[in-house]
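Why predict the complex rather than its parts? Because the way molecules touch one another can change local conformation, and only a joint prediction can capture that. The input here totals 523 residues.
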Amino acid sequence: MSVCLLEMNSVSVAYDSNTVLHDVDLKVYDNDFIGVIGPNGGGKTTLLKVILGLVKPVKGMLVFNQELSNNINIGYLPQMSTSDNSFPVTVKDVILSGLMMRKGLITRMTMNDRNKASQVIDELGLTELSGSSLNELSGGQIQRVLLGRSIIGDPRLLLLDEPGNFVDANFEADFYEKLRVLNRRMAIMMVSHDIGTITAHIKSFACVNRHLHYHPSSEITNEDLMSYGCPIQLITHGEVPHTVLKNH
Amino acid sequence: MEGSIFQYEFILKGLLGAIFASITAGLAGTYIVTKRMVFLSGGITHASFGGIGIGYFAGINPVAGAAIFSILSALGVEYLSVRQKIREDSAIGIFWAFGMATGIIFIYLTPGYTPNLMGYLFGSILTVTYADIIALGIMALILILYFGIFYRTILYISFDELFARTYSKYVNVFKYITTALIALTIVLNIRMAGVVLVISLLTIPPNIAMMFTKTYFKIVLWSVAAGFLGTATGYAISYFAGIPTGATIIFTLVVIWILVKIVSHVVDRMRVNVR
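Output of the joint prediction:
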């Protein structure tokens, strides 16, 4: 029996007088893996931000399940560009910051927190870099650290914004396998422009282009996208063994 | 001996001044350097000169005038760049020169005695009073408590503000409080190094520190140490050579920075050769 974590009821978001999201309805269940696709500037990132409470809707409302109230149980992996990656902060401290939502302003990390961080660091294959500063890491390694930050708090809902951008080839397969495992205990919404690589574990699509069209299946065609007013080209990667795109 | 009381006072003032200046500059400096706020801080510093001028003209304490001006200009830059969408560096440039112009006009208009302009612009031992040193000591205590208590909160907001906003409603509150504390730190250090030079007192020590370590907390510790070495040495040299304090302190700090840079470069090359 799946539990509804979040329900969005005709939510509209505008920056100044420019409507970015228009009358969005969406239900997210606890075992969902939703691929959020759509053209640039269509409102994909804004959709995540309104769920996180970073932008306020001008209309409509979001109803969170009790477990998720006050955003305490949402993990977030922002687009790479938001953090200053030359900042002198260690891998371990970045990952620990994922626990801040449970802490007050005056924060001491307990032994438990530190053990938890070590565990996440090991899981992500960052053991040797634990004490390194972020500015000594590659883009792919930083992306892994930020993934660690988003999952250390055991969120019920994980929001990923273009996680594939900086994932290095070595880690890519691992990364998506990791998401599949995480999906057993948390719902995932993942923004990506590269559907070819994300379709492996995705269960449904949300096509966002000012409006949101929910596509309750992992199979999606160009015709579907056209009918949703979501003009992006599906490109099949010939060798992808798990492709779920059909009717090309 | 004739000079003993004067010498005792010199040593006490110099030592306490160097300790408090290096603590305040180390904490505030690490924040502005890692957050790339050096230009903003330079603007705040120069804008505070307007407060000094008005203070003289109105017969109130110039340091109080500078404090008010620096905080208002910091908030003004924030307001213009965020709310009015004026480029931040342009807003800084406007406040920077406006403060200097206001200061010069009001000092010129002040009747009778013309205060020691050079002392405020470039720093001077003669103008440093015990009250200044006590104020700087209190500032050091406030900063240690503030950064000590809220260390992780401040660190994480500096590193990734957007992410911090996902779990805290107080991001802006912290940003404003920290900026105000930095403005006050700068104003209280003006007595030591002067309006024109004080920004280097904040920026050089963290840049020395970052050659030794790459984690925030250690950068603060090394900055305080490097700042103390530079300030105390510069203070002593300025006394014995009879040259301006602020300039000597900054000169000493830059010399230390260059020496450390050369040594670390040589050490790096030796490591490569060993391999």
